[in-house]
Amino acid sequence: MAAYCRVSTDHEEQLGSFANQVEYYAELICSHPGYELAGIFSDEGISGTGTKHRPGFQRLIQACEEGKVDLVLTKSISRFARNTQDCLRYARRLQQLGIGIRFEKEGIYTLDASGELLFTILSSLAQEESRNISENTAWGIRSLFARGVPHMNASCLLGYDRGVDGRLVVNRAQAKVVRRVFRDFLEGWSASEIARRLNAAGVPGVRGEARWYPVSITRILRNEKYKGDLLMQKTYTESFLTKKQRRNNGELAQYLVEDAHEPIVSREEWEAAQLELARQEAFRERHRVTQLGSRTAEPLHARVFCACCGARYLRLTGPRARVQWWRCVGASRAARDTAEEGLGGQAAVDASVPAADEPACTAPRVAEDALHAALAAAWNQVVGERAALEPGWREVERTGDVLQRLRARQMRELASHGAADPLRPALVRMVLEELIVHDPCSYEVHFLDGTVRRVQTARYYA
Hints:
Blueprint: E1 2-7, H1 12-31, E2 39-44, H2 55-65, E3 71-74, H3 77-80, H4 84-96, E4 100-103, E5 108-109, H5 115-146, E6 160-162, E7 168-170, H6 172-186, H7 191-200, H8 214-222, E8 230-232, E9 235-237, E10 245-247, E11 255-257, H9 267-287, E12 304-306, E13 313-315, E14 325-328, H10 333-338, E15 366-367, H11 368-384, H12 386-399, H13 402-415, H14 425-431, E16 432-439, E17 442-447, E18 452-456
Parallel strand pairs: 1-2, 1-3, 3-4, 12-16
Antiparallel strand pairs: 4-5, 6-7, 8-11, 9-10, 13-14, 14-15, 16-17, 17-18
Helix pairs in contact: 7-8, 9-13, 12-13
């Protein structure tokens, strides 16, 4: 004989009931001379609307199928399952094995002739009870949302802990990581590069491990909680039976509470990040680039494009070559196979690569030194024209959106440091949007503030 016990929450009062159930059935079976204990199977703090995520229940069914159990005792139908389909399916499954289930509260034994009908009716009532509980709980939570009272799980939210009043409290150590993510992103690092840098530095995430992914960086950048606001009901439970969560795309009302808690980044910095995310998405679509980040941390990656066909330039392999070359991915199929940039073969499936039936581009390869020289020449032109450009930058700082103001301020401050040859990678990331190659000596440099410069360089040879 075996017993099955379950409580649906880990609240203290329910855990007491759970312990009482286990103790009761252990004493009942052991004290009866005709019973032999086959095991007490239990699930603690788990909903009864499904069986997939109830390991104790699954072990019970397995023991029954292995012939280790002749009879199952349980407190009530609702403890066994609140899903009518599951109730009937497993009861009939055990019935075929000659194993009965005795529900003490309802006084039902499934092997009795009259047990089937009563069991079906009562299991349906248990499911309806579960639906009512679910709807009442959801209504209560949404009532809190409407009043601006937060209701959330902060255990997976980097930078915040949940205070005693249910509101978010800044976790000072984790908040430093959040600020670093926003700072690096607005200084030109892509989400994939930020994730790799955090992993390499061993920076712990919300669970204490250095396991960062581009998607986790993007979620941080998009989360309104870091500017102090709280958008509630981003997701909802599709069904009380499946418990499947769906993203709320307008199916239910959402509630935004501004200044709900202490921010980690300024409102302006957060909004600038949203505009930069939108700019990058538009940039990728325009140039048909799958990702902006490079495993080699090359600042020119996905920023050099061909004036002839519009495809991007990739770095060619050959570390022993005296000159490092870049080539348009549309120039030849051989170049597509040898282009690397640390992408692990991703260049071969890049959307910017022309299809097999498209004519190949005839643009020549260019030396990496020529690209650096073109950037330095364009930047030094900007520095030389700083006095003429500064009024425009200051006007943008006064009237532009938060991202335009940030870019104008960066250009003005960086230009004040004087000419640079060669340009530092950090400077390239902060100022360069794209570099258009017209020929090995002619380039068009687009800066992030909208400034464009056309420059000539010397021809480089291998």
